[in-house]
Amino acid sequence: MKAAAFWKIVLSDESDFLDRILSLLREAGIKYCLIGGQAVNAYVEPVVSLDLDVAIALDQIAAAESLMSRSFQVEHFPHSINVSEPQSDLRVQIQTDPRYAQFVQHAQVRSVLGHDIPVARIEDVLQGKVWAASDPGRRPSKRLKDYADIARILESRPDLTQLVPAEIQERLK
């Protein structure tokens, strides 16, 4: 089974939400890249996630939000704009924390969920996971997933261990 077909079955994406989001971004010339769990999946053995975390060039976040609000449901949170569609379980989270916007300029196109999508460099993905795992306001279940994603990256790329703070490395033991 192809990755895209598997993804649609797992997600129950009856509206082709993923395809429509990617088309909108591409057609509007929005510079973006995947970050978060799906970005981790682009570099290591994938795990199933219903989230698609996206970083957008800072000067294009407002345009992307306007574009998304014409076709989809949009909700604002402290550090993200969440985009959804009733006929899909996929949750797109546009990161609004400006630290992530710099990841866009170094993104590389990789195959994710059966699509060629710009993905943050593995070093940037790891940095994002470190920021998330270090956020005391983040839900404990999300932080545990961040630790697991960091561990997955380091198992595949032990040469990146020096990019992870000692306190996180200790928690991974």
Summarize the structure.
With 173 residues, this protein is of the alpha+beta class. It has helices at residues 3-11, 17-28, 36-43, 61-71, 98-101, 122-133, 140-156, 166-171, and strands at 32-35, 51-56, 73-77, 80-84, 91-95, 108-112, 115-119.
Describe the protein's topology:
Elements (H helix, E strand, L loop, with lengths): L2 H9 L5 H12 L3 E4 H8 L7 E6 L4 H11 L1 E5 L2 E5 L6 E5 L2 H4 L6 E5 L2 E5 L2 H12 L6 H17 L9 H6 L2
Parallel strand pairs: 2-5
Antiparallel strand pairs: 1-2, 3-4, 4-5, 6-7
Features:
two-stranded antiparallel ribbon; 5-stranded mixed beta sheet; 173 residues; alpha+beta; 8 helices; single chain; 7 strands
Account of the 3D structure:
By secondary structure, the protein is of the alpha+beta class. The protein has a domain at 3-121: Beta Polymerase, domain 2 (2-Layer Sandwich), CATH 3.30.460.40. Helices cover 46% and strands 20% of the residues. Helix 6 runs antiparallel to helix 7. The model has no long low-confidence stretch (mean pLDDT 92).
